[in-house]
Amino acid sequence: MNNKIFSPKITAVIESLRKLPTIGKKSSQRLTLYLLSKSPETAIDIAKSLIEATQSITNCKYCQALTENEICEICSDSKRDDSKLCIVENLLDLVAIEDANTFKGKYFILNGRISPLDGIGPKELKLDLLEKIIASRNINEIILAISPTVEGETTAHFISQIIGKNIIISRIGFGVPFGGELEYLDQQTLLHAFNSRTNI
Description:
May play a role in DNA repair. It seems to be involved in an RecBC-independent recombinational process of DNA repair. It may act with RecF and RecO. One of its GO terms (molecular function) is DNA binding. The protein is an alpha/beta fold. The chain is 42% helix and 14% strand. It has helices at 8-17, 25-38, 40-56, 91-100, 127-136, 150-162, 187-195, and strands spanning 58-59, 66-67, 81-88, 105-109, 141-145, 168-171, 198-199. Strand 5 (141-145), helix 6 (150-162) and strand 6 (168-171) form a beta-alpha-beta unit. Helix 1 (8-17) crosses helix 2 (25-38), helix 2 (25-38) packs across helix 3 and helix 4 (91-100) packs across helix 7. The model has no long low-confidence stretch (mean pLDDT 87).
């Protein structure tokens, strides 16, 4: 960073933005300069929204989605099918499935994948909470909507081992390439993958 060009406060904003996923040095510089020189009102609005959100957002006690209430809208919706539970890696995967309008059950968000090298194990994915949810509901099918990566395969295998034998376990996969991330699939591909799921 050229400290002769950017003041300490500008540099601080640039470095903060670089902490965001997919934001590199040039992108963080462009965003910072735009917000400070072209649209300071937008910068203030973003700051206020982020502060308010961080103070009021929590995780749903059942699915771990981000919500302002103890229980999210999907989990509290009596019209959703309680007998089907879809396990996804992150909230964006849930959004992608909802956008495809193919699933009307409930969800559980892992917020990651088992990855020993990164220090992520069953405890970090709240699999103990998942076991409690399965035990407390009359679930007849669990759908593993987990990306077909090495870590995803490991995670899916581990989850399948802790689920009772009287529950159908299915996995989406048709049309999803190995290493592919669900959130980047188009709706038609995801719809086909979901409807073509296979039991494991």
